[in-house]
Amino acid sequence: MLFEKMMKVAAVVLLLAGGAESAAATDRPLRLGTHLNLSKVNEITDAPWGVYADGVGSGATLSFDALYQLSNRFALHPSIGLDYRYFVSDDQQVGVSCDGCTESLWEGDNKDYLLYLEIPVMAQFQIPEIIYFEAGPVFDFLLMRKSEFYIPKEHRQDKCHDDRFFGAGLSVGLGHEFSFGLFVDVHLSYQLTDVVTVDKTCGSYTVSGWNSRTDNATGTESVEKEFEYIDEGMVGSYYLFNKIQLGVGYWF
To answer: Which residues, 6+ apart, have CB-to-CB distance to 19 below 8 Å?
Structure first.
């Protein structure tokens, strides 16, 4: 009997506590803000050469954010932003031997400029006035890619892929919000989908070996095929972007 009374009292206390927490959370359940991230972007691939210059780049994301407070501890943090990425190779010299070439040596940088529409949807856990943690999926849509090459098109090995329009990844982060609305954070994003369409091989060509033989009796020379096989240009099959982001934002 006593146990049942204690359980009823505990249930009432939890109900009141939950109501108090919900009431506190609904004082201002929805806030809007803006967020600027500076990022380092790494290309992960098994290819011997990259479709984005040098595989390492930098970027920035300007987003408009919403924070929907579910309770004193939990919130939903979606946003939508423009994500700019820039890749550049080191200074290089490349020589190509070919019939009819007017030039066979080029020096310069490869450059890639990309613009994405990025939509993260984060679940956020808060320790008020100390720190918050968040994690969730990130969706991106390619708006633009512009490339500048120092090697003429006919001698480049970048013709074996097309950029994908849609991508998805995961992001985790932590940050701190100040009492006046400013917040700072750091995020690590990992790409789950290929950013390009590409096969393991990019074209093939036939390799043949021939041997010349002379008949000692007749002096007749004959040419015989000794071997023949198809060689394929291996290029790799996945291109993923990992990003480390440092950000600052403000809730209005």
So the answer is: none
List, in sequence order, every beta strand (DSSP E) within the chain: 30-45, 56-69, 74-88, 92-95, 105-108, 111-127, 131-148, 162-163, 166-177, 182-191, 196-197, 201-214, 221-234, 239-251
Query: From residue 22, how far is each of 16, 17, 85, 86, 187 by CA, in Å?
Result: 10, 9, 41, 44, 29
Are residues 119 and 79 in contact, defined by beta-carbon separation less than 8 angstroms?
Answer: yes
The string of pLDDT tens digits covering residues 191-241 is 999 998 877 676 677 888 888 888 888 878 888 888 888 877 667 778 899
Residue-wise pLDDT for 37-95, tens only, equals 999 999 998 877 778 888 899 999 999 999 999 999 999 999 999 999 999 987 665 55
- What does the alpha-carbon distance between residue 252 and residue 203 come to, in Å, rounded to a whole number? 55
Flag whether the pTM goes above 0.90: no
Q: Which of 46, 115, 55 is nearest to 85 (CA)?
A: 115
66 DSSP β-pair partners = 32
Nearest to 75 by CA among 29, 34, 118: 29
